[in-house]
Amino acid sequence: MQNIQTGNPVCLQRQQGFTLIELMIAVVIVGILAAIAIPAYTKYVVNAKRAAAESFIMSVANKQEQYMLDARQYATTLALLGMSAPADVAANYNVAIVNVSATPPTYTINATPIGGQLANDTECGTVSIDQAGTKGITGTGTVTGCW
C-alpha cells in the first residue's frame, strides 16, 4: 500500500500497551481476589490473637493450681501470681481472675476482647476457664469452635 500524497509505501504499525478494556478486566480480577483474601486474612489474625489469649489464660490456670498448693487459696489477681499479660495479649484482651470464693475454692479466668478484637471476634467474645478446666465463651459460636 502506498501513501496517496507522497507515493511512499505505508507501514502498518501495531500499537503497544493495554487497551482500556484490558485494564478494566485486570482491575475487576484484582477486586475479586481482594474481596476473597481480605476477610480470610482478617479471620486468621483474629483467631491467632484469640489463641494467644487462650494460651495465656491456660498458663494462669496452671499458676493458680501451684498457688493453691502453696497458699491454700486461689489468687484474686494476676499480680499475686507474679504474672502480667504479654504485650500481644494485653493489646487485644483484658485478662482478669473473677469469681474467687473460699468455700469451696473456685475461680474463673476471663479474657475479654478490647478494641479491634472486640469488633472482629463476635463469634467467640470473652473466653474463660475455671478451676475445673471448664472452658467457656460469651459469643455466638461454640466452645469447641473457639477453643
Q: Give the SSE string.
A: HHEEHEEH
Count of extended strands: 4
Structurally, how many domains make up the residues? 1
Instruction: Tell me the structural class.
Output: alpha+beta
Measured on Cα atoms, how large is the radius of gyration? Answer: 30 Å
Observed structural traits:
rod-shaped, single chain, 147 residues, alpha+beta
Characterization of the model:
There is one protein chain. The protein is α+β, with helices and mostly antiparallel strands and 147 residues long. It has one domain. 45% of the residues lie in helices and 16% in strands. The chain has helices spanning 20-71, 87-90, 115-120, 143-146, and strands at 93-101, 106-113, 127-130, 135-137. Strands 1-2-3-4 form a four-stranded antiparallel sheet. A hairpin with a 4-residue loop joins strand 3 (127-130) and strand 4 (135-137). The longest helix has 52 residues, at 20-71. The chain is rod-shaped, with a radius of gyration of 30 Å.
In short:
This protein has 147 residues and is an alpha+beta fold.
Per-chain topology:
Elements: H1 20-71, H2 87-90, E1 93-101, E2 106-113, H3 115-120, E3 127-130, E4 135-137, H4 143-146
Antiparallel strand pairs: 1-2, 2-3, 3-4
